[in-house]
From TrEMBL:
The keyword Lipid metabolism does not apply. Its cofactor is Zn(2+). It comes from Protea cynaroides. One of its GO terms (biological process) is formaldehyde catabolic process. This is Alcohol dehydrogenase. Homodimer.
Length: 390
């Protein structure tokens, strides 16, 4: 058995001792622990993590939400990028040394859903919410105690094991922080503009919440040729970020006695927008997003889960001919669609440096949680390996 952080094993039959940020209970400070990461089993790869980032879903898991799925102790993190250190049996599309990112849904390209062309929710490799690998076991232990995974990832660790069906090969020309960002958040918003909404040139768009997902929507809407892109956020500093990615108008809620949907309608000659995207999960905003769209044909895409996981919906808004559609990963199929986003990063059509507001080392992970509370905070990059020259 190897020991010490930053270690590696050329044999997939050996366990590795490395460092990880472990959450032992809801809203408790994460503790750096030496954990044991088992070798990969069939159809699995063990990955040496290079860097990671924080997504809102990680914060929910840290808070113990949803309550019915609170799992501790757990290694958080599902955005990131790393290199394949070893492989289990049956892995044919990857090799040791490949750069990879995790995806929280898979794509078998064989099931009814994958073949339908109507959804990215794979029947064989769906979102895994029980904190274990597909075979219902863990690959991480601390002092003999089982650790739960986030989805099939757990990227806030120097090493982790992933099922190969939840891994996408990454082109090394993409900067590592950018690779981490497109493994979930930004891609979710960007992809939804063509996979879920199929925004037409000249369309009008409203985006509720200008975090990583919302800015992804703005960037995608701009590339799709939207004529008006209205961003909505409580933080005034998000206006500059939104405009960088292509936003044309900005609303800070509370600035007037009018509702957000009323303000949006005034900006669109009383009609409302063609498409709205709700990226926060804040309960009242679901209906505001729905009511901000044009009667008879407006479409609202909802990503956010919120703390409760439920929200009341205005039936009047729905029966007026509007459509409310939920979305996972922006409708993106990891193997089929992510290469399009990767190529846009390589061609510098997507400039993702503007998404990064802070960087921390893995051992300073708790500082990252504090940074996220700051008004200027957007995406925090976590450097897992001291040297990113892999």
């Amino acid at each position: 058995m190897n020991s010490g952080h930053g270690c590696s094993s050329k044999s997939s039959s050996q366990a590795i001792i490395c460092r990880a940020a472990v959450c032992w209970g809801a809203e408790e400070l994460l503790r750096m622990e030496e954990i044991e990461v088992e070798p990969p089993r069939s159809s699995e790869v063990r990955v040496k993590m290079l860097c990671a980032s924080i997504c809102h879903t990680d914060l929910q898991r840290w808070k113990g939400l949803p309550r019915s799925r609170a799992l501790f102790p757990i290694v958080l993190g599902h955005e990131g990028v790393g290199i394949v250190e070893s492989m289990g049996e049956g892995v044919t599309k990857l090799k040791e040394g490949d750069l990879v990112i995790p995806t929280f849904i898979g794509e078998c390209q064989e099931c009814t859903n994958c073949l339908s062309g109507m959804t990215n929710i794979c029947e064989n490799y769906p979102v895994n919410r029980n904190g274990l690998m597909p075979d219902q076991s863990s690959r991480m232990y601390v002092r003999g105690q089982r650790l739960y995974h986030v989805f099939t990832c757990s990227t806030w660790s120097e090493y982790t094991v992933m099922n190969v069906n939840y891994v996408t090969k990454m082109d090394p020309r993409v900067p590592l922080p950018h690779a981490s960002l497109i493994s979930c958040g930004f891609s979710t918003g960007f992809g939804a503009t063509w996979k879920e909404a199929n925004i037409e040139k000249g369309s009008t768009v409203a985006v509720f919440g200008l975090g990583g997902v919302g800015l992804g929507v703005i960037g995608g809407a701009r590339m799709r040729g939207a004529s008006k892109i209205i961003g909505v956020d409580l933080a005034e500093n998000k206006e500059e970020k939104g405009k960088f990615f292509g936003m044309t108008d900005f609303i800070k809620p509370g600035g007037s006695r009018k509702s957000i949907s009323q303000e949006i309608k005034e900006m669109t000659r009383g009609m409302g927008v063609d498409y709205s995207f709700e990226c926060t999960g804040v309960e009242p905003l679901i209906n505001e997003a729905l009511q901000s769209t044009v009667v008879g044909r407006g479409v609202t895409i909802a990503f956010g889960l919120g703390d409760k996981g439920t929200a009341p919906i205005s039936l009047i808004a729905l029966i007026s001919g509007r459509t409310l559609k939920g979305s996972t990963f922006g409708g993106i199929k990891p193997q089929t669609d992510l290469p399009t986003i990767i190529e846009k990063c390589i061609n510098k059509e997507l400039q993702l440096d503007a998404l990064v507001s802070h960087e921390v080392q893995l051992e300073d992970i708790n500082q990252a949680f504090e940074l996220l509370k700051q008004p200027d905070s957007l995406k925090v990059i976590i450097q897992i390996t001291k040297s990113l020259n892999y």
